[in-house]
Design brief:
This protein is mainly alpha-helical and 381 residues long. It has one domain. The chain is 72% helix and 1% strand. A two-stranded antiparallel sheet has the order 1-2. α2 runs antiparallel to α10, α5 packs antiparallel against α6 and α6 runs antiparallel to α7. The protein is globular and about 65 Å long. The N terminus is likely disordered. It is a multi-pass membrane protein. Keywords: Cytoplasmic vesicle, Endoplasmic reticulum, Golgi apparatus, Membrane, Sugar transport, Transmembrane, Transmembrane helix, Transport. Homooligomer.
Length: 381
């Protein structure tokens, strides 16, 4: 039987003001995603009830956004945390294939528009697709070995790397308030690691059991460190290519996920065991249907999260949306305690608290930056 005890990541979707997740994980503005559902009105100019009342309800949009994020985290963790799981490339390939099919279905239904496939653009997007593969693979491996709360806390470190990457590449700057949030992020990660090591050291009186637990943690932290830099490289690289080619959000999603499929399939063929016996170990009969359903949902979930974030942005303010993105990390971390066997200790709870505060401080800092930019008057020479 498989042992499901652990966290999450996801295919790439259009991104908004916040990075990833993700693996996670990740939200989007979905500027080109505009389902006609959100524009239903009666001939008298009154909103079509009750459906339009629901899609224009701020509380419903926030709950939908949070539930979409939590469900993706829980499903991804469930799939990858089997004791014999070793088909990560295959899983990610299926995820990307389902995501592409979902995007094409939305295009067919008129929910979004895509540009015609362009070979020259594809050549520019291929390196970004490789970075996407590196990001989601390292994220998936980190999830195998780390709990949901720890994974969620450590993903904050990606924000720091991206911020300083932008400073180096674009000459941006880090404000004191943002720097304070970074300090809290690092502190919460240190507390989380300390709590994890203490929990592993006390996991059993037998030295072999303790050594195995610590080895698992060290492996998870190594993958997590790799994921932080891979995710940052992907976000920074994607932003530069989008700016260079003037690519819209959904076209970027389409190219990066489509071009990642052959890389993932090749990786699976070269590095993974496709024997019947190994498939039987990875997909035990008692959980086979739920695993396959989870794999399909994780691919389609990219669309769900993107719509939910677009919905939240549309019916609330940008300030509310930014704060919801920061506050959403708390229920995602708590889901690790609720759905999996993540240890509840003073250290783990403290780490989540400081990570939660760091997210609020960061969101508030970015809101203040935008407000100052709007207030700045243009000058003429």
């Amino acid at each position: 039987m498989s042992n499901k005890n652990g966290d999450s990541f996801s295919v790439a979707i259009p991104e908004g003001d916040h990075e990833l997740e993700h693996l996670t994980g990740e939200t989007g503005t979905g500027r080109s995603f505009s389902p006609s559902l959100t524009r239903q009105v009666s001939y008298q100019g009154e909103p079509a009830a009750p459906l339009s009342q629901l899609v224009n309800n701020p509380t419903a949009s926030i709950l939908g956004y949070c539930l979409a994020s939590i469900s993706m985290t829980v499903v991804n963790k469930y799939v990858v945390s089997g004791s014999d799981w070793n088909l990560m490339f295959l899983y990610l390939a299926i995820q990307s294939i389902v995501c592409i099919l979902a995007v094409l279905a939305c295009k067919k239904l008129g929910f979004l528009t895509l540009e015609r496939f362009n070979t020259d653009n594809a050549k520019s997007w291929f390196p970004i697709a490789v970075l996407l593969v590196a990001q989601i693979y390292t994220g998936g491996k980190a999830l195998q070995f780390l709990s949901v709360p720890v994974f969620t806390i450590f993903k904050n470190l990606t924000i720091i790397v991206i911020a300083y990457g932008e400073v180096l590449l674009s000459g941006g700057r880090v404000t004191p308030l943002v720097l304070l949030s970074f300090g809290l992020m690092v502190f919460s990660s240190v507390v989380a690691a300390w709590a994890d090591v203490n929990a592993a050291a006390g996991s059993g009186s037998h030295p072999d059991k303790t050594d195995a637990a610590l080895k698992t943690l060290n492996t998870g932290y190594a993958w997590m460190l790799a994921n932080v830099f891979c995710a940052a490289a992907y976000v920074l690289g994607k932003g530069r290519v989008m700016k260079k080619l003037q690519t819209r959000d959904w076209d970027a999603t389409y190219y990066s996920n489509l071009l990642s499929i052959p890389v993932l399939v090749l990786g699976s063929f070269l590095a993974e065991d496709w024997s019947a016996a190994n498939f039987a170990r990875n997909f035990p009969e008692d959980s086979r249907r739920s695993l396959i359903s989870g794999m399909i949902y994780s691919g389609a979930g990219a669309i769900f999260i993107s719509y939910a974030s677009t919905w939240c942005q549309r019916v609330t303010s940008s300030t509310t949306y930014s704060m919801v993105g920061a506050l959403n990390k708390l229920p995602i971390a708590i889901s690790g305690f609720v759905f999996f066997d993540a240890p509840i200790t003073l250290g783990s709870v403290s780490a989540i608290f400081f990570g939660f505060i760091s997210g609020i401080v960061y969101a508030w800092a970015k809101i203040r930056e935008k407000e100052k930019a709007k207030m700045a008057l243009p000058t003429r020479r």
